[in-house]
Amino acid sequence: MTTRAGFVALIGEPNAGKSTLLNRMVGAKVSIVTHKVQTTRARIRGVAMAGDSQIVFVDTPGLFKPRRRLDRAMVAAAWGGAADADVIVLLIEAHRGITDGVERILDRLGEVSQGRRVALAINKIDRVKAEALLGLSQEMNARFGFATTFMISAERGHGVEDLRDWLAGEMPEGPFLYPEDQIADLPMRMIAAEMTREKLTLRLHQELPYQLTVETEAWEEREDGSARIDQVIYVSRPGHKGILLGHKGETIKAVSKAAREELEEFLGRKVHLFTQVKVREKWLDEAERYSEMGLDFSDGNS
Prior knowledge:
Blueprint: E1 4-12, H1 18-26, E2 44-50, E3 53-59, H2 69-84, E4 87-93, H3 100-112, E5 117-123, H4 130-143, E6 148-151, H5 160-170, H6 188-204, E7 212-221, E8 227-235, H7 238-245, H8 250-267, E9 271-279, H9 287-292
């Protein structure tokens, strides 16, 4: 049996549907999905099996115009993920078309994709008419030499299997990079932190301070098969702590409960989750916080 294995970078603007597509491909929730832009910070890898091929997805942070150190580190991680991959998939939203952000990506794509096949995936196709889709596809392909184009709905699953089959055939011949039953190479501590951060985003919506991060400080395996997980939510201002705690601690209790239930479902066992909120005014300038998120602190300088 000839096996294939390689890396695929999913790139695109924030909210283009990269995390939803990754989770659909892998068949499990490994990347957090929210309606708030820019929720994916680290290069989360999801592993999908397709026949005799193993596809390792690099779910990069959305590409956007960086303003702060954290933004710059995230954009550097995204382009770094694309440069390290065997195949690149550019995801754009059908109803938004060629935005300024897509223009910026196209301008740099040629430089980063040297020698790599790049596929175009037009997502959220259920939001526009067929003729508009055709026009968008033609315009994008006139701008860049894509190997092929897919019309998909990551949320509903339309076209996703065709994209996965094509990617499987594009992977280099070689042994599998991960055990067949492993869906992500992200440590469970980080996945747990991401789940809590997702629940914060869903609960707080507009109030959520961007300057927060969640870290899993301790993970204790107990004799009864359960796990005790201790997490810290860092915020940069004292006022943010009050938002996260909520009236009589109701907000943080609800967030912790939702995160614990999802963790229990994900792990298939009982979880004891303890969360606390701490103010660290300068956490955005601490190298340690960046390494916890899988980002390179020095990338934020450029």
